[in-house]
Amino acid sequence: TPFRIPRGQYFFLGDNSQISDDSRAWGTVKEEDILGRGELAVVHLDWPWTKTFSWQDLSGHWIR
Fold first, then answer.
1. Residue partners of 39: CB distance under 8 A and separation at least 6
2. Which candidate, 1, 36, 41, 42, has a CA 20 to 30 Å from the CA of 60?
3. What does the DSSP assignment read for the chain?
4. Taking Cα atoms as reference points, which of 44, 36, 43 lies closest to residue 58?
5. 14 pLDDT exceeds 70?
6. What is this structure's pTM?
C-alpha cells in the first residue's frame, strides 16, 4: 500500500522485515525527535544464521 511520509518526518525500517518492529508498527518519527545518528548495530549471536556469519562479510559496510 502506498504511504506518504510527511515532510520533516522519517520512516524507519528494520533489517529483518518479517519480524522487525519499526515504523510499520509505530509510525513515522518527527525530525525534531531524532537525537543523534546510528553508530552501532547489535546482533544477537544465538540466532541460527549467525552460525555461518563472518565479520569479514561486513567489512566496508558499517553505518557512517
1. 63
2. 36
3. ---PPPTTEE----SSTTT--SHHHH--EEGGG--S--------TTSGGGGG--GGGGTT----
4. 43
5. yes
6. 0.56
Cα-to-chain-centroid distance, residue 22: 8
pLDDT in tens, 20-63: 788 988 999 999 999 988 777 766 666 666 666 666 665 555 54
Residue labelled with grid coordinates 569479514: 56
Which residue bears the cell 518526518? Answer: 9
Quickly tell me which residue has 518527527 as its cell. Answer: 30
Q: Which candidate, 13, 15, 9, 14, places its Cα nearest to that of 28? A: 9
